[in-house]
Design a protein that fits this description.
By secondary structure, the protein is an alpha+beta fold. The protein has 18 helices and 22 strands. Strands 18-19-17-16-20-21-22 form a 7-stranded mixed sheet, with helices on both faces. The chain has a 4-stranded mixed sheet with strand order 3-2-1-6. A hairpin with a 2-residue loop joins strand 4 and strand 5. Helix 15 packs across helix 16. The radius of gyration is 21 Å and the shape is globular. The structure holds 6-deoxy-beta-L-fructofuranose. The site of 6-deoxy-beta-L-fructofuranose (LRH) has 13 residues, from helix 10.
Length: 472
Amino acid sequence: IPAGSVAAVDLGATSGRVIVGRVGPDTLETTTVARFANDPIRLGDDLHWNVLGLYSAALAGLREAFRAEPAIASIGIDSWAVDYGLLRAGRLLGTPFHYRDERTARGVAAVHAHLPHAELFARNGLQFLPFNTLYQFAAEDPFLVNAGDTALMIPDLLGFWLTGSARAELTNASTTGLLRWLDHAWDDSLIERLGVPRDILPPLIAPGEVLGALRPEVAASLGGQAPVVAVGSHDTASAVVAIPMQADAAAYISCGTWGLVGVEVERPVLTPDALAANFTNEGGVDGRVRLLHNVMGLWVLSETVRGWERQEGHAIDLPTLLDSAAEVPASAVPVFDINDARFLPPGDMPARIDAWCSEHGVRAPQSRAEYTRSIVESLAQAFAEATATAGRLGGIDVRTIHIVGGGALNALLCQRTADRAGVPVLAGPVEATALGNVLVQARAAGFLSGSLESLRDLAARTHAPRRFDPQA
Ligand code: LRH
């Protein structure tokens, strides 16, 4: 089998990148050809994604990719889940909302008035998150939903602009709450009960299938032609592909803005226990199930640091801040419930931590180093608890915990997760999402063959993780 190259567009909640991956049976190398900020925009009370800016940055990155490697075999796109754009006759209606926009509360109230969460869970297997797409549809301006003829999730929207082909990639569609994972089909009766116009949901497409060739004018502007191939377009689904794990004995934490903590299983777990633990069953590549829980992730720390940076008027060096936090004894800071819904929207995190501490009668952190340590300890505790729950619910004896994504660079967090879980942590790859995107494309292009296990084996051989053993 020859080696070859593919391009991955990976959009995260704070930044995006375009990566060229070179892949063969013993090769998995990546070059980042573009990296750009993803800054949400507030318009009045509303919080939006700058999708046109992201598309334009992705195009510039792909142009770079073709310059670096003219023989790119395909392009794959992934991003965060749940958000979408509405279209009519191929034109975008309105500006896609950010899932942290507070309109979702309205949608939750409207849906739960006639369909309680337990009933939804029995059908779609999803944890309750106020921003699941079905609640966003319920909060949407009815004028737009009824005028629209197509709703496209963010990666599908970019794929549509590149190719002219409108499809819904399966792993991301599983985060809408409107899909039956077991038969890989839209849940028509649920969609009808929710009053969502059935026609706005496009036909599904599975990871590895070809979406379409670049539209001629797009190819001309990029200086190259290649098909867009569906990948695990939900970023977490792509990340899970590239985790160098033994899925029957490991838990994972895909740690960026969110900490997605779970295990991989063959069939959805819809037990009362899973419902009570608010775990989700999201669709994975090759029909696997990602049984996981959304833990708040690095969001609380990044938002805290952003607030301090605004006060100071200059950037704060994260490694230096984490070093100062490592000097603070863990016993000196409070462990707060980092999953508390008050930490979801953007805003003053230290003030919210103070409020939580005063409500719970504990001493609030007193310095920046203490806040940082308190956030890391609280995150590590939530990670330890969620990995244990994931193992129990999924029937998996968790002997290692893999941390991938940006969080794998945070040594204090990795160590404290190992300590609090009493299980070794293997950290890396940092770019698991982009690697998973690349691996699925490479297999579709014939540069690799085999199961997810063989893709993970290649990731393990080429990206050795860093080990953190639990300390007493
Ligand atoms: C992580 C992520 C996560 C979703 C959230 C909206 O980027 O895709 O899996 O729950 O964003």
